[in-house]
Amino acid sequence: MHSSIPQWRYVMHVLGLHARQRWWLYGIAAAAFAWCGTHYRVALNMSNSMPQSMYLVVLGSQPTGVGDLVAFEWQRDQFYRRDWTFVKRVAGVPGQAVTVNGRNVYIDGKSVGHAKTVSSRGVPLDPIPPGVIPPGYIYAAAPHPDSLDSRYSVTGLIQSSRIIGKAYAIF
Question: Residue 95, by phi and psi: left (phi above 0), alpha (psi -120 to 50) or beta?
């Protein structure tokens, strides 16, 4: 470096040379980043409701059956903001029967959880009403007893229009 050139100007000169020589690489990286942003999303689990804490969501894909992980938008604002992304496991699909015995919830006779009377914040909770899961909806559940999932009427069945995509656990 020549002593009469300010250091910042020298650094900008070197960076400019670097960018001009590798413009194609930056273009490919920008295109790949834009493509990934339109096809994938990372969802973070900020509670203990699911065993994993980070998920890759394939945008626009639909879960195909019981056991799949699903990412969906929260629709109510009593507990969380509307734009929060929830990740749960599909526990019920159209045509399956949801029954409630006391506060125990079942799908086709298999237990999917116990509905608590109040949330951890003290808000009263009602169990989901019994019935058959209609077309265009799923029952979403999580293994944690404090999970705010479809066992509660405040969450209810998840309409397919609220599904962001199929989720895959990262860690």
Answer: left
Q: Which residue matches tokens 């895959």?
A: 168
Q: What percent of the chain has pLDDT over 70?
A: 95
Bridge partners for 114 per DSSP: 104
pTM of the model: 0.81
Helix (H, G, I), strand (E, B) or coil at 56: strand
Among all chains, which residue has been given the structure tokens 């962001």?
Answer: 164
Residue with token string 């705010």: 148
Identity of the amino acid at 127: P
Which residue stretches of the chain are H helix?
7-21, 23-39
Pairing label, strands 97-101, 131-132: antiparallel
Tokens of 96: 């399956």
Q: What are phi and psi of 29, to 5 degrees?
A: -65, -40
